[in-house]
Write a structure and sequence with these properties.
Distance between the termini: 73 Å
Number of helices: 22
Largest sheet: 6 strands, mixed
Strand order of the largest sheet: 2-5-14-10-11-12
Helix content: 40-55%
Number of strands: 19
Strand content: 5-15%
């Protein structure tokens, strides 16, 4: 807490006050050297003027000169102990830590604790310093002290888990990471390190689930005895027991197999019929909902979970007493967030169609005061919501407010099975956006190679070599992130042949014309049927190519290889002769 320091009524004291104001003005006007000279003159005039030292410390710190700034802050604290808060010392310590000045960082954290002995984050950061110096016992003690003071400090559990993992105390590490996820269910690093710990325990299936950001029921039950089958049964309810409107009955889509040169099929393509589930919408008085990147759930006013709306690790939401508090919304809210709703595919296939379900349920959108979506910071999110008539001032981002409650909560069902688009969804997306994309459309290439060069995973490592082979046949490489949403719609609507690694950009095949040829390229261990299903619904000619095993393919690649914790994310290297072969088979060349 900053306190105003009394100024001496002596002439030097009055001059010091005047110079202090001049120093502040110089600093605000971008003249730090003159501000430094003024602060030094202040200190000569009135050596006990703590604010002068504090201001000089701020200026040194703004210039990256941390050691002189620390000396100034320590002198200011000596003169006026309550001038600088514990939070300030925590931030300063973190800055020293980032520059690997560990002793200075420890001094800052200890100073914060002298000011406030209950400052949990300073215990946590002090523990990090001891761990970096190899003192794991002291680090554990400090993490546990932070947890005792702040039981919902998820980063303290995470760091505790890291030390246990380093010590091969695997069960304790698992328990610590689970606690972190009970507080912050979308904690990416906790999922990653939990998966690594489970691999060391030879719990392969559980580790792979964590790599996909899903906590298996069996794992939760092992560590939380309260999560019994009877607990789950008593805390769940079906939408059919509530106030619901049925929209679509179950229906089926007949599937034609992909065409292959040798007539053989990957087992994932052996389906003959896809069953789309029923759709509906539920109205919940005083309803509550949870939504993050990996988990969503809708709850009744008495805390029962709606089975059909749970995605991801909903059981952790059910049993955790440490979730962030509810954000009350003052008005009717529509809950639309879905697992993976920050990605293009799930936004298009799972989230946007829920707006259409509201309309089909004869829910008037104008009286709805809030529409809860995962986020709206990405251009395609803002653009599509605007095109569907959802005003920006009505949008609530569950990335910022994961736990919400409203006097009336309207929850449409998922439009289909997660990851498998429904026929009515395809029709809705085409009707909603194709016409808008056609207005004033510029010519687009008819043959395109979709680039994932700028993606964080599932990249085509020998993309440059592929472009060199495909360019003579009229193919144009396209990075979809360089286009607006409607430009992507127009691109796919005008394409006649598309070649692409498996990825979210192929969601846009829903906008293709029947007869468009699609060649999808898969990693050997991650063959997905998402876009084959769209091809069946729209009437595309679908072909696929399985890429080379990365460990067996030694041809120089244009993009550096990375390591991933699940086959779904693996990068891809294609045999270019095999690609040309399937292009010949499909009469592309």
């Amino acid at each position: 807490m900053n306190l105003i320091q009394p100024i001496s009524t002596s002439l030097p004291g009055q001059k010091a006050q005047f110079l202090y104001q001049e120093a502040e003005m110089c600093f605000r006007q971008g003249n730090p050297q003159e501000a430094i000279a003024l602060c030094q003159e202040i200190i000569k005039l009135q050596p006990d003027f703590a604010l002068g030292y504090q201001r000089l410390g701020h200026i040194w710190r703004s210039q990256g000169k941390l050691s002189p700034s620390l000396r100034c802050y320590l002198k200011a604290r000596e003169l006026q102990p309550n001038l600088i808060s514990a939070d300030f010392w925590l931030d300063l310590g973190s800055e020293f830590s980032e520059h690997n000045h560990l002793n200075e960082a420890k001094l800052c954290y200890n100073t914060a604790l002298q000011i406030d002995p209950t400052h949990a984050k300073s215990y946590l950061n002090l523990g990090v310093m001891y761990r970096r110096k190899g003192d794991l016992i002291q680090a554990i003690a400090l993490y546990q002290k932070a947890i005792a003071l702040h039981p919902t400090l998820h980063s303290a559990y995470f760091n505790l888990g890291n030390v246990f993992l380093e010590q091969e105390r695997l069960d304790e590490a698992v328990a610590a990471y689970l606690e972190a996820l009970m507080i912050q269910p979308d904690f990416e690093s906790a999922y990653r390190n939990l998966g690594q710990t489970l691999l060391r325990q030879d719990r392969i299936e559980n580790a792979l689930s964590c790599a996909l950001h899903f906590l298996p029921f069996s794992l939760i039950k092992d560590y939380y005895p309260a999560a019994s089958d009877s607990f789950i049964a008593s805390h769940s309810v079906s939408y059919r027991d509530l106030n619901f409107v049925e929209i679509h009955l179950k229906n089926s889509v007949k599937l034609s197999p992909p065409q292959t040169p040798d007539g053989s099929l990957h087992p994932n393509f052996n389906w003959m019929v896809h069953i789309n589930p029923e759709t509906f919408a539920v109205t919940l008085p005083l309803g509550r909902a949870w939504g993050d990147s990996y988990t969503t759930a809708a709850l009744t006013s008495d805390g029962r979970f709606l089975d059909e709306f749970c995605q991801g690790s909903a059981l952790s939401i059910a049993i955790s007493p440490k979730l962030p508090p509810v954000t009350p919304l003052k008005g009717t809210a529509a809950f639309l967030s879905v697992r993976g709703g920050n990605t293009y595919y799930h936004w298009m296939a799972d989230l946007l169609p829920r707006i259409q379900l509201l309309k089909l349920a004869e829910t008037q959108l104008d009286p709805i005061k809030f529409f809860v979506v995962n986020s709206c910071h990405l251009p395609f999110q803002r653009e599509t919501l605007s095109l569907l008539g959802i005003p920006a001032h009505k949008i609530i981002e569950s990335s910022k407010h994961p736990h919400i409650q409203a006097p009336t909560l309207v929850v449409p069902s998922l439009p289909g099975d997660v990851g498998l688009i429904s026929q009515w969804t395809c029709e809705f997306l085409r009707q909603a956006f194709l016409g808008k994309a056609a207005v004033g459309r510029s010519p687009t290439p008819e043959r395109i190679l979709i680039s994932r060069r700028h993606a964080s995973y599932r990249r085509l490592l020998n993309e440059d070599e592929a472009i060199a082979r495909l360019s003579p046949h009229g193919f144009v490489p396209i990075a979809l992130e360089s286009l607006s949403f409607l430009e992507q719609v127009a691109l796919f609507a005008g394409a006649k042949v598309i070649i692409a690694p498996h990825g979210a950009g192929l969601t846009n095949t829903v906008f293709c014309n029947p007869g468009t040829k699609l060649i999808e390229i898969f990693s050997p261990d991650a063959v997905s049927v998402n876009y084959w299903l769209i091809a069946n619904i729209i009437g595309l000619e679908y072909y696929y190519l399985i890429a080379e095993p990365l460990e067996e393919y030694n041809t120089p690649t244009s993009i550096p290889k990375r390591n991933y914790n699940h086959p779904l994310y693996e990068d891809i290297v294609i045999n270019l002769d095999s690609l040309l072969n399937i292009m010949q088979f499909s009469n592309v060349i």
